[in-house]
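Please check this record.
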Amino acid sequence: MAEEIITGLDIGSSTIRVVVGQVVPDETGKPQLHITGAVSVPSEGVHKGTVSSMEDAVSSVSKALERAERMTGVAVNGAWVSIAGHNIFVQESHGVVGIARADTDIREEDVERVIEAARTVATPSNFEILHVIPKSFTVDGQHGIKDPVGMSGIRLEVDAVIIQTLSSQIKNLTKTIYRTGLDIDDLVFTPLATAEAVLTQRQKELGVCVIDIGASSTSMVVFEEGDILHTAVLPVGGDHLTNDIAIGLRTSLEVAEKVKREFGNAVPDDVDRKAQFSLADFGSTEDEMIKVRFVSEIIEARIEELFENIDDELRKVDRSGMLPVGVVLTGATMHLPGVADVSKRVLRLPSTIGKPIGVTSVIDEVQDSAYATAVGLTLWGFAIRGAHGGKFNLLNIKGVNQVADQLRKWMKSLIP
């Protein structure tokens, strides 16, 4: 039973979410992922995606795991864990190897060698590689090959994306998780996990941007022709909306958060001009009347700024207003009405709220965009284990898993 359980652990700055999936056969006998548990607890000891207090973080993660085990009735021994933050560094790399055999047939070990060649980039001494993801292969000058195994050629090249982060960030995160008694199956860059949950392969082929608005940061990843075109992490999130409201209303963060949840709307024109509320109703010591539209204008200004920054990132890869599928939005901030409307206006692209696909469940929370990353982590683990038919085929190449194996060995050495 334990081998059939796949767990995703999404450690955010405001909330820790755990999703437990079980591999079961579908009507045709093919394996599929069925979500049996989804829980969330407030996150303590995590700031801007990195561990700021190990004791508090261990307590929060332990509480989430305990709840998940109670909900599912299954012991959670290992998990696929999200990692984000502003220290993520992405670069392109190129690897080349020769095929010296007489039959010149390309084998899996040749693919492993060329990916290893791409991996040997100049990495700063305080950074560790998280992922090496092949974009495309070239065989004897023929470009755009997705899987070269079985082809004939004497020169094999690969264009890959290298995702790396600070060694200290990995150490602190892994130590925190190991102290809860949980094993780490692998660390996964947050926007990649999110994309795995909310995108189809066709959307990745056509061109799409996934935007995950977290509490303290926003991560984005752009796909085109099935490959990662660009990724970035911006230091703006849902907490900044709360801060702006607190400053605008001259009240506490607690009151501002309650006001945001009750009356938050990113489109002021959708709000009744005469609608008002009293701060005292939300626990403030002042009995001041506030117009709901004023709160909406504060939110709109910050959300506009966020999407303008995202548009700047799209300009770096010449995709501003030029993605056929548009953008898919995820994160708890999507609970605010009007965010997708502002995205559509500022980015000049179709904008939809992403919900996890490719899984079955009777749990309503699984359809919440806030759970997209946690569900994506379970799908990532499902794909890596080769349980379904190549939806993420580049991840099933052994050379990619080789990097994960090396990272896991290094993480194991950190176990206290």
